[in-house]
Amino acid sequence: MSHVAAPPPSGPVPFARENSLKLLKDMLRIRRMEEKCAELYGAGRIRGFLHLYIGEEAVATGAMHALARGDNVVATYREHGHALLKGVPMDRIMAEMFGKKEGCSRGRGGSMHLFDAAARFYGGNAIVGGGLPLAVGLGLAAKMRGEERLTACFFGEGAMAEGAFHESMNLAALWKLPVAFFCENNLYAMGTAIERSESQTDLCTKAASYGVEAFPVDGMDVVAAYEGAKRARAKALADGPVFVEFRTYRFRAHSMFDPELYRDKAEVEQWKTRGPIHTFTARLKAQGDLTEERFLELDAQVEAEVGRAVAFAEAAGWEPVEDLTRDVYAP
Amino acid sequence: MTITYREALRMGLREALARDQRVFLVGEDVGRYGGTYAVSKGLLDEFGPERVRDAPLSELGFVGAGIGAALGGLKPIVEVMTVNFSLLPLDQIVNTAAILRHMSGGQFAVPLVIRMSTGAGRQLAAQHSHSFEGWYAHVPGIKIVAPATIDDAHGMLGAALDDGNPVLVFEYPALFETAGELSSARVDIAHAQVRRQGTRATIVAYGASVPKALAAADQLAAEGINAEVVDLRVLRPLDMDTVLASVRKTRRAVIVDEGWRSGSLSAEIVARIMEQAFYDLDAPVARVCREEVPIPYPRHLEEAALPQPEKIVAAVKGLFQ
After folding, report:
1. Candidates B65, B95, B109; nearest CB to A137
2. Catalytic residue annotation of B
3. Mean pLDDT of B121-131
4. Looking at this predicted complex, what is its ipTM?
5. What is the CATH topology of the domain spanning A17-37+54-90+111-301?
6. Least enclosed by CB within 10 Å: which of A6, A9, B230, B249?
7. Are B223 and B217 in contact (CB under 8 A)?
8. Mean pLDDT computed over A249-266
9. Does A130 contact B62 at a Cβ distance shorter than 8 Å?
10. Which CATH class name applies to B2-181?
11. Which of A134, A138, A327 sits opposite B105 (nearest CB)?
12. CATH says B193-318 is which class?
């Protein structure tokens, strides 16, 4: 499978200006929050594993804007952006990164395990493929309860080599469940390139073998990501599961412990030319929906939100050791 | 009313399905086939294919789906045909069901019941004869129950559904044909129970080993040793109060465990007796466990590999030498 990025997205953005600016701002919110996380990781404020989504923001942004508030989301350990845009407040996410009790998981999970019942955000799963069966069950519950509720399940292409992928696709298709399987194909399962992990690198062909509609989407283009997710949502609610391959790329290392021996710098640089934020910004400017001043204004608003989130996390408290075994069982 | 263990399990399932619309049963061949061990026979006709839901051979998938359905507001009963196949969804049980409440800071409950048959004794050879209750009992966040009586076979399911935690219910094909009186007493999933009063030694057992322990106690009584039998019932969390009270009274104990000896649940119970009742003992605690071999097919070898009443009798007598 080619690792060469397609030409950068271009052409008019078919949204009202305010909607476009919301998409742009949400991509910036993920980007700036994660840049701050990387900095705080270097400073020792955040520990454990930290998997950055930088480069892939268009996928979560487009998809979350296409979802309804009452939809369920199941995600992976690279889920900061998904959590944020599903409605988990940035300050609660940041406090979770710090391990503080005001964190969205009371500090028990950290970066890989963000949860929020109110936002219907079901994690934050660090077992590759582990979230897929869960999404099937959430879809089953929605269907049996007669709810108009999509379950969106995000996973990387690496998860498609897991048995859980096949079992989940088969179950969802057999039971015609309202589940959207959103594959974020960033070409590498940690350090293993897709052609080294998949005998069939055309992921939509693979998914379609379960009798579900499957289509690819340019995951570097927030417009395409939004439209693809919207189409998938309508289809899944009407007819059962849908598979979408978002073709994307991670600009940073797999985690903070990755020297990136497995890919060429030139490849990374080529994909960066398609960065979802700057290409979208250029398109909006070209059609007169955005000025540099407005961009700087949005960016400043985002930076301020990040600043408040960090301050919240700094000020938050540690869970008392006496509460160590709290919530192992129902009270 | 006299019924079999199998009928008691079915009655418990029927009551659970009838009582709460959120409850549904899912697993391999639970519907049209009627359940591998005919436990769910007739339930499809009564409750329909949505609530008695046949699943393909995807243990990881449908156990995980059970967890997701529990998160989505239902009360799933997932049947994994046997404990042997439960190693396929082990990841979902241990890495998700057991962990989710704690790791989400108490936000997500997993009110899920997973039923599975377990144990040896039916000449099914090594891949169909495992006893991994003890493994599961190692894991915080789940509860493990082992019905050994008609009342427990009937009532533990309902108690498990009411519990609000993921509960694994181990069912014993070796006991399916046993019959007994069903009482109207409600059962809990919190306590061990003394099944036979005694004064001179305590035999601790669970599951299919309980009738063996009772048979051994009968034989010992004929030989003048009045043994008490404690049915653990709940393997996690352990009710050590009941075990320790008995051991402090009799001052001698044998633990019977159908699992392998090394790293077994019996080892945990022995350790806790040592920690908490060492000075009450008149003899070292003994164990009767599965021999450390894969279970072989021929009957004589299988029987030799498993705890038997004679071995329990010998172990109890050994405490007096």
Report:
1. B65
2. 59, 128
3. 94
4. 0.96
5. Rossmann fold (3.40.50)
6. A6
7. no
8. 91
9. no
10. alpha beta
11. A327
12. alpha beta
